[in-house]
Design goal:
The protein is α/β, with parallel strands linked by helices. The chain has helices at about 20-25, 45-50, 70-80, 90-105, 185-200, 210-230, 235-255, 260-270, 275-295, 300-315, 320-335, 350-360, 375-384, and strands at about 10-15, 30-35, 55-60, 85-90, 130-135, 145-150, 155-160, 170-175. Strands 1-8-5-4-2-3 form a six-stranded parallel sheet, sandwiched between helices. It has a two-stranded antiparallel ribbon with strand order 6-7. A hairpin with a 4-residue loop joins strand 6 (about 145-150) and strand 7. The longest helix has 23 residues, at about 210-230. About 55% of the residues are buried.
């Protein structure tokens, strides 16, 4: 058995821990480049900590998903202002922007040089600028992952730039920052966390360390996602989901994902649907396809057993089987009002093209078994 595990140099978790920034920031320099979401006021706690620490800062607002163009603009501003380090506060899109900006602040060449699929996939040679990541959603776990997912509108695809150097220097996870999420965002981000934990647990690259992380994360997501959706003031549920999100990031960074996320990249470039909604809509169908394929043509019973183990965790029922997990996932998606992908513009005519693109996605390499073209098309067709 061989495996590696890498994560942020430091992880700080707990309510009110945003205040730790006051002591952390001065260790990285005198001027910060703060990347926020559309509403900069949500970053007021960060700005206050920097003021208290007498750290100068410049801000950059990133509304929506990070595009190559937006990252270029942010890098240009960070360099022009001679900023020493990056702070990103927001959802996965904001944190991914931060990782890309921190990388390009210390590496030569064009952003396209480092992109997978549509670029050269060049390796990042130098360590990135110091980066403190503060998630305000509970889903992506981007604060502890080593890639940034960027949208390339002209190619209608999302792709990654990836390197161990891109792991944030500090992951500062304060559940209080997630308390203001509206129900629909709680649902879409939480479903992404659930999917990441499930896919990492059944991945070809799973290992004993990520297994333990996934089991604990799945347990917390199973008991708290619906509670957080129905009652945003439930602090215990919010904390559970912050842990589940963090653990999902830790797991996927070290064990890969699977077909759900293999589809999510090309779909995210084609339709305007939240990433977590895409994942949730396809999760049960991918689950069924994987189990059927493993039963029919694989000689690895231990992989099939993992799907039963997931069922026991999700349902809290000893002896539960894979089909019980499918039913549980479908009931959760119904409770969280997850729509079909046709609502976002996906059509029958798009299926073959999307399936062909998905086969090239890096996440597909982690799926427990290679799915055939008709299986991939069938998953998408059911997701309409």
């Amino acid at each position: 058995m061989e495996f590696e595990f890498a994560t942020a140099a430091r992880i700080i978790f707990g309510e009110g821990k945003v205040k730790a920034l006051r002591d952390i920031a001065p260790t990285f320099g005198r001027k910060a480049f703060v990347i926020t979401g559309k509403d900069e006021q949500r970053a007021s706690a960060v700005f206050q900590q920097l003021k208290d620490a007498q750290i100068e800062y410049r801000s950059f607002s990133n509304s929506g998903e990070p595009t190559v163009e937006a990252v270029r603009a942010a890098v240009e501003k960070a360099k022009r202002e001679r900023c020493d380090f990056v702070i990103s506060i927001g959802g996965g899109s904001v944190i991914d922007t931060g990782k890309a900006v921190a990388a390009m602040m210390r590496n030569k060449g064009k952003l396209e040089d480092y992109l997978e699929v549509v670029g050269n996939g060049q390796k990042i040679a130098n360590r990135t600028a110091p980066h403190v990541a503060l998630p305000t959603t509970a889903g992506t776990g981007a604060e502890v992952t080593r890639n940034a997912v960027l949208k390339v509108p002209e190619k209608k695809v999302k792709v990654s730039m990836r390197s161990p150097f891109m792991l944030p220097t500090v992951a500062l996870v304060d559940p209080e920052l997630t308390y203001s999420m509206p129900p629909e965002v709680t649902a879409s981000t939480g479903l992404d966390a659930l999917t990441q934990l499930l896919e990492a647990y059944t991945s070809k690259k799973a290992n004993p360390l990520t297994d333990g992380i996934c089991r604990e994360g799945l347990k917390r997501a199973a008991r708290s996602l619906r509670r957080a959706y129905e009652d945003g003031d439930n602090k215990e549920a919010r904390q559970d989901m912050a842990v589940a999100s963090l653990f999902g990031g830790l797991a996927l960074a070290n064990a890969k994902l699977g077909a759900v996320h293999g589809f999510a990249g090309p779909l995210g470039g084609e339709i305007e649907a939240p990433h977590g909604v895409i994942c949730a809509r396809l999760l049960a169908f991918v689950f069924v396809a994987n189990v059927k394929a493993l039963e029919g043509r694989a000689k690895q019973p231990y992989l099939l057993k993992r799907f039963d183990e997931i069922a026991e965790i999700l349902t809290e029922q000893a002896g539960a089987k894979a089909q019980d997990a499918v039913s549980w996932i479908q009931q959760l998606c119904e409770a969280l009002a997850v729509p079909g992908l046709r609502k976002y513009g996906l059509q029958e005519d798009d299926i073959k093209r999307i399936a062909d693109k998905a086969k090239q996605a890096s996440s597909m390499k982690g799926n427990p078994i290679e799915l055939a073209d008709d299986e991939l098309a069938g998953i998408l067709r059911k997701g309409l």
